[in-house]
Amino acid sequence: MTSVEIASAVLGTAILLSSAVLGLLYIRKIRNLSLALSELHSLNHKLEHDSINFFRKAWPILNSIGVSQLAAKIRWFGEDKQILLGESTECKCTQEFKQLEYGQMAFDVILRLPKKVLREGSMENLVLQTFFNILEQDMILKEEQVTSTQKRLERYQMFVQHEIKNIAQFINLLSTQVERIEEDKDKIRLADRLKKTLPAMAQRAQKTIQTMKDPSLSQEKEATFDVSEVLNEVVHMYDLPCKVLGSAEVTMRQELVLEIFKNVLGNFRDHNVGNDLTVYVADNAQPNMVEIQVQNRNIPGVTLLPERMFEPFWTTSESGLGLGLFLARELLKQVSGEIKFQQGSQHFGFILSLPKMQA
User: Fold this and answer.
1) CA–CA distance from 352 to each of 11, 100, 318 (Å)?
2) 80 Cβ partners below 8 Å, 6+ apart?
3) What is the radius of gyration, based on Cα positions, of the chain?
4) Inter-residue contact 242 to 267 (CB < 8 Å)
5) Which partner from 6, 43, 99, 332 sits 20 to 30 angstroms from 346, CA to CA?
6) Where is the Histidine kinase/HSP90-like ATPase domain (predicted)?
7) Would you say 81 and 106 are in contact if contact means Cβ atoms under 8 Å apart?
8) Helical pair 254-270 and 324-334, crossing angle rounded to 10 deg
9) b/e map of 271-298 (b: 16 or more CB within 10 Å)?
10) Is the pLDDT of residue 163 over 50?
């Protein structure tokens, strides 16, 4: 074999080996990207379709496909949150902007990543699009939960109206029967019938009364009252170690204000963090507004997540439904009021603003 033939054979072998290595590397890359797709879906299922947690915890997967930095401004049920993951490297990267918005939720996302990740049809791009698709579906699911809750409240209103009509008809019929009874045997027969029907009717009436306690459905008339008196009523109701300082009068539905304070102060009770509560009522903090500051001392070891405070169905309490603060904010909107979370070096709590007269 000549030297030329030997060189040709060596070159051919090298080409075959190089092709084999490239093939193995390509197969490994495809396998890793396929695994990334599977991990995204598995992670989302494990986190129970929680948008914010999914956004945070999916970062290692995005980093593995070449994303060097992930930044986002999150607007979440009235609260803002900034998230920055990764570092700004010197690689030949480009920036990509993505915005997702549903109801009271929004993600404004900026990514730093190589252009190949954005290339249409690439596996990297498929992983990235899957990430955003899952995030979007989680937000849609949360929005459907909120809408469903609002529709349930509307159905409760229809239920109350229907039940009041039934109870009124029953009383009217009973009154007519009592007026017509003259003989003792008819009185005994009516008494026996009432023994069977009254317990069920009383139960329906009690259920209706409980439903009517929802102030969003209440037709209670406006009245002028002192906010501090309602606050003290809630404090005694929940047996909270709380001081209420200051006073201010408002003119609105008292039952609505009572429900707002029950939801806010009840949140401290449900999470066992209301051991050092102080409520400050200010009459002239804002023009034509009453300001209520609810403060509690910071508790070592307790991590607070402001961006999730007002998210419906999110809670760390075993006994709660995650609706209290959300409902408080929704009720305040009805009267052009507002509530904000605040945390300083020593205290955390909420600032509520109530108009002096209902809007």
Assistant:
1) 79, 29, 26
2) 73, 74, 307
3) 32
4) no
5) 332
6) 252-358
7) no
8) 160
9) bebbeebbbbbbeebeeebbbbbbbbee
10) yes
Check pLDDT > 60 for residue 10: no
pLDDT tens per residue across span 272-307: 665 788 999 998 777 889 999 998 887 777 777 778
- Other C-beta atoms lying within 10 Å of the C-beta of residue 109: 19
Tens digit of pLDDT for each residue in 97-122?
A: 999 998 889 999 999 988 888 888 78
| Both tokens assigned to 90 | 């010197």
Q: Is the pTM of this model over 0.70?
A: no
CB half-sphere exposure, 235, CA atoms < 13 A: 18
Look at the domain 223-355 and name its fold. Heat Shock Protein 90 (3.30.565)
Residues 283 and 246: beta-carbon distance below 8 Å: yes
CB atoms within 10 A of CB 134: 20
Sign of CA dihedral 215, 220, 222, 228: negative
Measured CA to CA, the distance from residue 23 to residue 70 in angstroms comes to: 31
Residues 6+ apart with CB under 8 A from 159: 208, 211
Amino acid at 144: E
